Amino acid sequence: MSEASFFTDMLQSITDRGRQLLFSGARATQVAAKVDLQTLCEMLLSSRGEASGMALAAEILDRWGALESEGAQKFLLMLHEKFGPDTTKLDQAIDKYRADKSSAAIIALHQAAEPRRQELLRRLNHAPNGTAKLVRMRQQLLASKDQSAGYHALDADFTHLFGSWFNRGFLTLRPIDWTTPAYILEKIIKYEAVHEIAGWEELRRRLAPADRRCFAFFHPRLADEPLVFVEVALTRSVPRAIGDVLDEGREQINADEATTAVFYSISNCQDGLRGISFGNFLIKQVVEDLRRDLPGLKNFVTLSPVPGFARWLAKARPETLTALDDPNWPDDKKTATEVERVLLPLAARYFLVERTPEGRPVDPVARFHLGNGARLERLNFLGDRSAKAMQQAHGLMVNYLYKLDDIVANHEALAQRGEVIASPAVKSLLNQNDESRSGGNGQQGSRPFAQIVNSTLGGGRK
């Protein structure tokens, strides 16, 4: 028996005994069922006994898990409406702080401002498998169409607590290979979010060869559930297309022949942990481990999708650009050459110039890697011709370069100045875009971007 399963069994035993004590012996289950969930939650907050607290937490989570969608939604609404801060205590703490800005007054204000549901969630976490059930509860919250203030307040509580519970210090990095237990490998197939794994044979091709690696983060309270995993190809050069990495007939090499580690897929596994960042720690830890085990590796790069590019381009795309509407355009060499000529400069603008209202790069994958301190190294035209990639990015893929000596400076450039650090090759593409905007005289044009795209992509036709 594993240590994790022993601990779970022990918690379950304590919980069962607590139920018997709390709800009158042999008829505990029937008695508990007559008490409504709000009352059970109030009982849990006032509970002082460990066994009784675990029994209440388990009862609440079991009852919540049995609810239909509408009932589960009402439970989340109840958490917001009935378990916010104690407003009387909060008002008193505010008055005390205004009169006396001492450390004690600040502590009292902090305690009074905390919603009661945060302590409730902490106590629910004590139940057997409580962490996993709370992750599923937040997953349901995120899937809700409700975007009210209550929704955001409750999600803020989950995010605050999960940020502590899933701190990097609690995570363990584990290699995933062909000898990993099948029940975990099944989850790798299930959770792969970038390049679909069609079945066991394809998974074997990604894990078994000497020039392939996979690593995942796990949490002790979700022992058999990967949180995030990364797939790595060991190569002699930086690939331009995903086909070069996943081709069934590719040439395999020994690991010690490789000079480049390519992170070609990073998948977050738990929807209920969305927004809780693990990937940045994962990549940096994997780089360190690979450098230690394979000192011949000199380059650490990604081969990444660009999920927001087609949507961004569509906002300014001219009616006259019909080439991209034809699913067969990549097979026509002349058309593909023309599309490449105009698409890559616009892609450079997408990464280097365009920003969200908050001043961040518009592409979500770019925000992740550039925020981690990577450099935008290369834009790869038709790097992925799968249906998904053609729909999201017209086939575009990107290499981000992780150079350890530059990671901090690159991160600071983006965080402090909003500057994306890019290779000279990518910057030169942006210059081509600028020249087309200025009529070739090197001066920035004043036309709206939609008009620039229209004249560039449409060739000025009407």
Count of distinct strands: 8
Question: Low-confidence parts lasting 5 or more residues at pLDDT below 50?
Answer: 436-452, 456-462
- The total domain count is 3
Strand % is 5-15%
Q: Shape, please? A: globular
CATH topology of the largest domain: Butyryl-CoA Dehydrogenase, subunit A, domain 3
Percent of residues in helices comes to: 40-55%
Question: What would you report as the Rg, rounded to the nearest angstrom?
Answer: 27 Å
CATH superfamily of the largest domain: Malonyl-CoA decarboxylase, oligemerization domain
Q: What is the typical, i.e. mean, pLDDT?
A: 87
**How does the major sheet shape up?**
5 strands, mixed
Protein structure class = alpha+beta
